[in-house]
Amino acid sequence: MTDSQACPNCRSSFAYPTGTSWMCPECGHEWNPEELAAEEAAAAVKDANGNVLQDGDDVVVIKDLPVKGAPKPVKAGTKVKNIRLTDGDHNIDCKIEGFGAMALKSIYVRKA
């Protein structure tokens, strides 16, 4: 018999395989474990070099980034400490010295 999987919707341990997918008898949720694993892998936030970022990491800006309402851009090479990851287009929340709280895109930073 195959290994049992918990339902990702209700965490029931009574899920059973139905060919290529799994079904939960308690909540009726049906899922494909391969697609679920691919979604979780895609959810990881990566920097410009492909390194996975985590909350609390330090990053370095790799490109001059213009800031609306500020007279000068955030310069390349600026170190940003203690980032927080969020959902959305700008997936890093941080504080940059001289600018304050900002949201950055992970494609413009590299792990320090």
* SSE pattern: EEEHEEEEEE
* Unreliable segments of 5+ consecutive residues: none
Average the pLDDT over all residues and give the rounded result: 90
Report the portion of residues in β strands.
25-35%
Topology, number of strands: 9
What is the spatial order of strands in the main beta sheet? Answer: 1-2-3
N→C terminal distance: 46 Å
- Helicity, in percent? under 10%
Give the class from helix and strand content and strand pairing.
mainly beta
Q: Evaluate the radius of gyration.
A: 20 Å
Number of contiguous helices: 1
* Biggest β-sheet strands, sense, barrel: 3 strands, antiparallel
Structure description:
With 112 residues, this protein is mainly beta. It is built from 1 helix and 9 strands; from the N terminus they run E-E-E-H-E-E-E-E-E-E. It has one helix spanning 33-42, and strands spanning 16-18, 21-23, 30-31, 59-61, 79-80, 84-85, 92-96, 100-104, 109-111. The strands form 3 sheets. Strands 1-2-3 form a 3-stranded antiparallel beta sheet. Strand 6 (84-85) and strand 7 form a beta hairpin. The chain starts with 15 loop residues before the first strand and ends with a strand.
